[in-house]
User: Fold this.
Amino acid sequence: MTSQQPIAVVTGASRGIGRAVALELVGNGYRVFALARSGLDLEDLASLVPEGEIAAVVADVADDESREAAVDLIMDATGGYGTDVL
Assistant:
């Protein structure tokens, strides 16, 4: 993965600190997988940065199935690499 940008996963990214962290990470060169329960809020977040820098992932980290689906999505999207920062 040395030739690619680092990857971060941010939970609670739809608002507040999570949203600010996601934007800061993008500003520092990360590709961000932004997790939250609200798809509309995530779409709004993703619209603030260049396309592809934030991947909106609707997920509830308190729900096992939702969490597992988010992990599967991230693993697929990164070719099995996973993440550098959570």
